[in-house]
Amino acid sequence: MIEKLNDAEKKYETINERLSDPAVVANQEEFRALMKEHKLLMPIIEKFREYKEAMRLMNEAEELLSESNDADLKELAEEEYKTEKEHCAALFEELKILLLPRDENDDKNVIVEIRGGAGGEEAALFASVLYRMYTMYADMAGFKTERMSANETELGGFKEISFMIEGDGAYSKFKFESGVHRVQRVPETETQGRIHTSTVTVAVLPEAEDVEVALNPGDLVIETCKASGAGGQHINKTESAIRILHKPTGIVVECQDERSQLKNKEKALKVLKTKLFDMKQAEQHDKIASERKSQVGTGDRSERIRTYNYPQGRVTDHRIGLTLYSLENFLNGNIGEMIDALITADTAEKLKNSEY
Fold first, then answer.
1. At how many degrees (to 10) do helices 71-98 and 336-352 cross?
2. CA triple 150-171-281, angle to 5 deg
């Protein structure tokens, strides 16, 4: 591990030198790539240098302890040695975490898709609850949200809705939300007070960058149509909605939230690229079974990950066995505790499976 850290420090110093080269600064693509790498390495190198300084102090104290005959000095040296030894051990554990393989998508924006599953209108209504929950959390976390498309129901639910969350680290916060979310409650449409169970599916896709997915115009069938909606003022009377079919995969995306046909087309192409990128990544992950063992859940959208129980006021995440008895607060966007617990559990799994 120390050898890896020494190599990382050399690389960091080389990047620093290159970033001060006017030729590199003039090449914006190379400069951005180096800055990205510099940003990733910096916390590791800072922690490693802190570790080396603690090791130096510990060794000095140990040397003084063995050489000095002064009782008071030896007592001080022994206390210093013990303190720095504990400090070194703590820093070493932090370095282990920093050196874990990093998800290359963590810093990306995400496109979230929520679809009503079993439960009909009740599932659609809960889809709107989850949409509100995620947008409220995103706002608290300083992320920007932008609705891409939606298929609303007469009662104000969503058969499906997709939206983008933009901000540094968005994927790292939302990536564990993919899966089946189960709700147990008395439906708003129910008059006899019986508790029903419905499901909603959530998919979290890292936004694809242009360099990662290239689209062949010949593979696309682009159609314009009138926006659909629950009725009334929500229906767009002009053909501004866009529907794109990707012939090689059969993927269809629609975007209707903008009044401008051009903006809807731009959004639809962004969603299509993201779906193709997600498909490519899924194929790669299927080839690496060990990677799935070191993660919290598989990310499979058929996996039931969480239950929201209204009568008991609780929310339970089945992957880590965490239950919070603060459902109303949770649905108002205060999901940070759950997200942090999932990240911690995933890190612990990766550490358990790492070579350190």
1. 100
2. 90
Whether residue 295 has pLDDT greater than 50:
no
Check whether 293 has a pLDDT greater than 80: no
DSSP labels for 241-303? EEEEEETTTTEEEEE-SSSSHHHHHHHHHHHHHHHHHHHHHHHHHHT-HHHHHTSSS---TTS
Contact 265, 158 (CB under 8 A): no
SS3 63: helix
Q: What is the pLDDT of residues 301-322, one digit of tens each?
A: 567 899 999 999 999 999 999 9
Which residue matches tokens 């240098």?
49
CA distance 126 to 330: 14
* 239 phi-psi bin (left φ>0, alpha ψ -120 to 50, beta other): beta
The whole-number pLDDT of residue 284 equals 56
Altogether, the residues listed in the chain come to a count of: 356
Mean pLDDT of the 56-68 span: 90
Q: How many CB atoms lie within 10 A of CB 293?
A: 12
Interior/surface letters 66-93, b for 16+ CB within 10 angstroms, e for the rest: eeeeeeeeeeebeebbeebbebbeebbe
Residue 59 tokens read as: 């060794």
Dmax (CA) of the chain:
93
Q: Report how far Cα 289 is from the mean position of its chain's Cα atoms.
A: 21
What is the CB neighbour count within 10 angstroms for residue 178?
A: 21
**Distance between CA atoms of residues 255 and 234, nearest Å:** 14
Q: How far apart are alpha carbons 163 and 286 in whole angstroms?
A: 27
- Cα 155 vs. chain centroid, distance in angstroms? 31
Block residue for tokens 């003084």: 64
**CA–CA distance, 88 with 58 (Å, rounded to integer):** 8
Q: What is the pLDDT of residues 130-189, one digit of tens each?
A: 999 999 999 999 999 989 888 888 888 999 999 999 998 899 999 999 999 999 998 876
H or E element, residue 150: strand 144-152
Integer Cα distance of 147 and 112 in angstroms: 10
H/E run at residue 336: helix 336-352
Residue 107 amino acid letter: D
